[in-house]
Design goal:
The complex is a heterodimer of chains A (about 400) and B (about 300). Chain A is of the alpha/beta class and about 400 residues long. Chain A is globular, with a radius of gyration of 20 Å. In chain A, about 30% of the residues lie in helices and about 20% in strands. In chain A, the strands form 4 sheets. In chain A, strands 3, 5, 6, 9, 10, 17 and 18 form a 7-stranded mixed beta sheet that branches. Chain A has a 6-stranded parallel beta sheet with strand order 13-12-11-14-15-16, with helices on both faces. In chain A, strands 2-1-4 form a 3-stranded antiparallel beta sheet, with helices on one face. Chain B is an alpha+beta fold and about 300 residues long. A 7-stranded antiparallel beta sheet of chain B has the order 1-7-6-5-4-3-2. Chain B is elongated. The relative contact order of chain B is 0.11. In chain B, a hairpin with a 5-residue loop joins strand 3 and strand 4. Chain B has 2 domains: about 120 residues, no CATH class; about 150 residues, START domain (Alpha-D-Glucose-1,6-Bisphosphate, Chain A, domain 4), CATH 3.30.530. In chain B, helix 2 packs across helix 6, helix 4 runs antiparallel to helix 5 and helix 5 packs antiparallel against helix 6. Classes of the chains: A alpha/beta (about 400), B alpha+beta (about 300). At the A-B interface, strand 1 and strand 4 of A face helix 10 and helix 11 of B.
Chain lengths: ~400, ~300
């Protein structure tokens, strides 16, 4: 079969690899119909996530058709159309039982490596480094899905592939980011980054009752979508983010701040140079400019929610502000399995249209170019969907 | 066991004298030796190798901790291969002579490997039980169920990765066989010392075994009656004692990380019915380092 393989920093290629197959009893093999390139794949592309190896198959957002099931999978049969959550979760452990699927204790075969970095290991994730299990991803013609009796959700005939594709990651991720803000009637939520996760966080914050949502980015096409989703916008190239937020909230600051940018934040001035140099020298793994700004902007007693991906160590985090302003910080890989059903219902009844963020549709062969385009934000690229059938 | 070891001191002595001789030559006549093996004038490197050879040689001849010194020769051989390979990049080297030297190193390396393996086997049986190993893990299942799974000793080879088989000889005694990293096979007999159903099992190895240890596993109810906290405590006899165990831990081969990984697999087996793995899944073209890493992956 053909698959998108990581070949080094800024190098992905299409390679002919052996077919995916059932290895464990609770596995299924899915013939991928649609996959997507995630903003977090760009952190792999840029070489900032440790534990990648040449030849790793990428992709953690995908949906398709079941072609084979292991002896332990009785809820799926060949021909079922399913969308697959990016966290691999057993459904039996302490964390899965409490619906904290991304913290599954049993799905990362390389847990010992993750423990060295973080103290404890999260779940395994498709195509996202050997620290998170080294599982082959879904930007491929076929993919092996472990614990297939827990993760994949069947899709009703009435819904299109593209409508359900983002249930695999970014829609639940944006939703959980908003849910983590504990939004109350009358709240103002500020969202940094109007990429797919930021946009879904904006929509979700509105659905969860936020009165105002303020979106911060610098790309006009992204800010346009944010506006369409109901947000007021700040283009930080033209306006100063912190003083504008102060002004718009009468000096109090937003009730909640969402960092939908993560480890490769774009910033201006001294701060930008400082983090770029330290990151290049591997003295810190992140450029946490947005996280700093979120903490600084947030109102006293407010919440900072971090769906953006961070991998290692960040410098100059204003911890004094966290303590003295009594902030709550919430984060985590998304417990996708918890949100798939309710969000599918919201798509079905028209409350959310996930397809509005799609800017490009490409074939498997076009994926390497699409990575470069997405990374460089060329051609107003917001979200790339890979059509496997073509 | 003892019979196969009778000729061993001879091999150790030969390797020891060989080491000392080679080391002297490297230190006293590095230029001539460099020309002979075709690497050109590399006096400093050769003198350093000479010191290493003499340390290994004297160690082997002293008869103390022979396993450690035999292993130091294996490490030295690997170093020599690397240096010979690197020397080929230099215009001063003579590829034909380097190839001949590499062949000679390969022959000696085979002997070294054999000697270190036999030594390790014999000294593991005799070392004092002074390397403690503790590991504990929470399992989402009741204590009597985890105990019952463990007490059926045949189950152990399903999650202890180095274990090949366990055969229960009677109520208390059992026969074990394991294959360690590097392919060395170990056999031993074990006897249950204490058996408290649902709570505790303890055991010790019997005389005549190729390794020796005493150990116990406790099954404690988790906080609030949720699940089981499994505690494993083993005291190993390891050649070289705690220091050698420390060194092994640097390369993740320490008994402690092995036991922890085994417990993790036990947890997966009991909670999910299978052991998480990526072995056998597809991948694109790997780099050389990648291929080596993939082999070690579970």
């Amino acid at each position: 079969m053909r698959a998108v393989c990581w070949q080094g920093v800024h190098k992905v290629g299409i390679e002919e690899v052996p077919d995916a197959r059932v290895i464990n009893p609770r596995d299924a093999v899915i013939k991928v119909r649609k996959a997507a390139i995630c903003g977090s794949d760009l952190h792999l592309y840029d070489g900032y996530v440790p534990g990648m190896m040449r030849g790793d198959i990428l992709g953690h957002e995908f949906m398709g058709e079941v072609v084979e099931t292991g002896a332990g999978v009785s809820n799926l049969s060949p021909g079922d159309r399913v969308v697959v959550p990016f966290p691999i979760s057993c459904g039996n452990c302490f964390f899965c039982e409490q619906e904290m699927y991304s913290l599954c204790e049993n799905s990362n075969p390389n847990a010992r490596l993750a423990e060295k970095f973080w103290g404890h290991s999260p779940c395994g994730i498709f195509g996202y480094s050997h620290l998170l299990g080294g599982y082959a991803g879904g930007q491929a013609e076929y993919v092996r899905v472990p614990f297939a009796d827990v993760g994949p959700m069947k899709v009703p005939d009435a819904m299109s592939d593209e409508q359900v594709l983002f249930l695999s990651d970014i829609l639940p991720t944006g939703y959980m980011a908003a849910e983590n803000c504990n939004i109350q009637e009358g709240d103002t939520v500020a969202v940094w980054g109007c990429g797919p996760v930021g946009l879904f966080a904006i929509m979700s914050a509105k659905l969860l009752g936020a009165t105002r949502v303020i979106a911060i980015d610098r790309f006009p096409e992204r800010l346009n979508l944010a506006q369409r989703a109901g947000a007021e916008i700040i283009n930080y190239e033209e306006m100063d983010t912190l003083s504008t937020l102060q002004e718009w909230t009468g000096g109090r600051g937003p009730d909640a701040c969402i960092d939908a940018v993560g480890m490769e934040a774009h910033m201006h001035g001294v701060q930008n140079t400082y983090d770029k140099v330290k990151q290049a020298l591997r003295m810190e793994t992140e450029r946490p400019g947005v996280l700093r700004e979120c903490i600084q902007a947030c109102r006293n007693g407010g919440t900072v929610s971090v769906p953006g991906v961070y991998g290692g160590l960040a410098d100059k985090i204003p911890l004094g502000a966290v303590v003295n302003k009594a902030l709550t910080i919430k984060s985590g890989q998304t417990h996708v399995q918890r949100y798939m059903k309710p969000l599918m219902a919201r798509i079905e009844n028209g409350e959310i249209d996930p397809t509005m963020i799609i800017s490009h549709r490409v074939s498997l062969d076009e994926v390497p170019d699409a990575f470069a385009m997405f990374r460089n934000k060329e051609d107003d690229c917001i979200k790339v969907v890979v059509n496997m059938a073509s | 066991m003892a019979a196969s070891l009778t000729q061993q001191p001879t091999l150790d002595r030969s390797l020891g004298w060989f080491s000392v001789g080679l080391g002297m030559a490297q230190i006293l006549a590095p230029r001539a030796l460099g020309r002979m093996i075709g690497v050109g004038n590399r006096s400093t490197v050769l003198r350093m190798c000479g010191v290493r050879e003499i340390v290994s040689g004297v160690g082997l001849l002293s008869g103390r901790a022979p396993a450690t010194f035999a292993m130091s020769r294996v490490v030295g051989d690997v170093m020599d291969f690397a240096l010979l390979g690197a020397s080929l990049r230099s215009p001063r080297s003579n590829p034909t002579r380097v190839a001949a030297a590499a062949t000679a190193v390969a022959g000696v390396a085979a002997l070294d490997l054999y000697a270190s393996k036999v030594e390790l086997q014999s000294s593991m049986a005799e070392a004092r039980q002074d390397v403690p190993v503790h590991a504990s893990l929470m399992i989402n299942s009741a204590p009597d169920q985890v105990y019952a799974f463990w007490r059926k000793l045949e189950n152990l080879s399903r999650f202890m990765s180095h274990l090949e088989s366990v055969t229960e000889l009677d109520e208390r005694r059992s026969e074990w066989s394991a294959r360690m990293p590097g392919g060395m096979q170990l056999r031993w007999q074990s006897e249950i010392v204490e058996d408290q159903p649902g709570r505790l099992l303890s055991w010790r190895t019997l005389p005549g075994s190729e390794i020796n240890h005493v150990g116990s596993v406790r099954f404690e109810p988790g906080p609030g009656g949720q699940g089981t906290q499994v505690h494993v405590e083993i005291h190993y006899g390891m050649p070289g004692g705690p220091a050698a165990a420390k060194a092994a831990s640097l390369v993740s081969m320490a008994p402690e990380s092995m036991v922890t990984e085994d417990l993790r697999r036990l947890k997966q087996l009991i909670e999910t019915g299978e052991i998480a793995t990526t072995r056998g899944q597809p991948a694109g073209v790997r780099s050389m380092i990648g291929r080596a890493f993939s082999k070690g992956e579970s």
